[in-house]
Amino acid sequence: MRNLNRRTQVVILTAFMTIILIAVFSFGLLIPDDAVVGSFLSAKQPPSLAHPFGTDALGRDLFLRTLKGMAVSMTVGTAASMISAVIAVFVGIAAATGSKCVDALINWFIDVVMGVPHTILVILISFALGRGLKGLLVGIAATHWCSLARLIRGEVLQLRSQQYVAVSRKLGKSGGWILVHHLLPHLVPQFVVGLILLFPHAILHEASVSFLGFGLPPEQPAIGIILSESMRYIQTGMWWSAVLPGLTLVLIVLLVDKLGDNLRMIMDPYSAQD
Amino acid sequence: MKQKDETILEIHDLSVSFRMYDHGLEQTDLQVISDLYLTVYPGEIVAVAGSSGSGKSLLASAILGILPGNATVHGHLHYKGQELTQERQEQLRGTDIALVPQSVAFLDPLMKVGAQADGHRKPLPTDKRKSIFKRLGLPDKTEQLYPFQLSGGMARRALVSTALLTDAKLVIADEPTPGMSLEQALEALRMFREMADDGKAVILITHDLDLAFEFTDRVAVFYAGTTVETALASDFKKGPDALRHPYSQALWRALPQNGFQPVCGFQPYAGALPKGCLYAPRCPYKTAQCMDAVPPVREIRGGEVRCYYGA
Amino acid sequence: MALEAKNIYFRYGRKQPWILEDCTLKIDRGERLAVSAPSGYGKTTLALLLAGYLKPEKGEILLDDKPLPAKGICPVQLIYQHPEKAVNPRWRLKRVLEESGKLREDVLDAFGIERAWLDRFPRELSGGELQRFCVARALMSGADYLICDEISTMLDVITQAQIWNVVLEEADKRNMGIIAVTHNKHLAERIATRMIDLSE
Question: Which of A167, A179, A187 is the mutation pick for testing C, counting most C CBs within 10 A?
Answer without folding.
Answer: A167
